[in-house]
Design goal:
heterodimer; A: seven-stranded mixed beta sheet; B: 113 residues; mainly beta; six-stranded mixed beta sheet
Chain lengths: 115, 113
């Protein structure tokens, strides 16, 4: 195990639903990330949090709302999603964002299907 | 200029053969080049990484070759094993933001027994 746990593993939701993805890391890291992984496309960085503060938002639509209550937990709140939002959502953590050669530790992801 | 182009999209190799995956980049300011390995149902995991001050780095059966002038780098898997069957992603980042990886689109490797 990588020390990064994501729940649920699978999620099916309608376009009018509201759901949340959860991520927890047990590595003592200070930075946490949300990535979107779509088939045959590069991993897309969505959000970065460092010491609970959001430091990156890569022009993500507002229907995705992240929350980082502490350095160990990260949530992604979803509402009024579109079918094209169906993808694997990966959480990752690292020691921080200021070092060289930062190593990312990924969770196993939540496979999201929007109907 | 921020893209990393990866090829091939998929690769089939016989057990014991050499698997080669290539990546190219445009931004000469990139200075950290990791490779991540992802098994089905799992998240990517760091496999091996290189900085541009060396032309090659080897860890066991895995080798990164780096060509700074051509702005290309590649992953070689020697003596490929069925257990190496996975998707491989190259990535690149800038010196002052190594956490902000730009990933390639991935190569699905299948090693036949």
């Amino acid at each position: 195990e990588t020390g990064v746990t994501q729940t649920p593993r699978h999620l099916v939701m309608g376009m009018t639903n509201k759901k949340s993805l959860k991520c927890e890391q047990h590595l003592g890291h200070n930075a946490m990330y949300w990535y979107k992984q779509s088939a045959k496309k590069p991993l897309e960085l969505m959000f970065v949090y460092n010491f609970k503060e959001q430091t990156e938002n890569n022009s993500v639509p507002s229907r995705f709302s992240p929350e980082c209550p502490n350095s160990s937990h990260l949530f992604l709140h979803l509402h009024t999603l579109q079918p094209e939002d169906s993808a694997l959502y990966l959480c990752a953590s690292s020691r921080g964002t200021g070092g060289t050669n930062e190593k990312l530790f990924f969770g196993s992801g939540t496979q999201l299907s929007v109907l | 200029q921020q893209q990393v182009k990866q090829s091939p999209q998929s690769l089939i190799v016989q057990k014991g053969g050499i698997s080669i995956i290539n990546c190219a980049y445009e931004n000469t300011a990139f200075d950290y080049f990791p490779w991540y390995q992802q098994f089905p149902g799992k998240g990517p995991a760091l496999l091996i990484a290189i900085r541009p001050d060396v032309s090659e780095k080897k860890e066991g059966r895995f080798t990164i070759s780096f060509n700074k002038s051509a702005k290309q780098f590649s992953l070689h898997i020697m003596d490929s094993q069925p257990g190496d069957s996975a998707t491989y992603f190259c990535a690149a980042s800038l010196a002052d933001s190594s956490y902000k990886l730009i990933f390639g689109s991935g190569t699905r490797l299948l090693v036949r027994p």
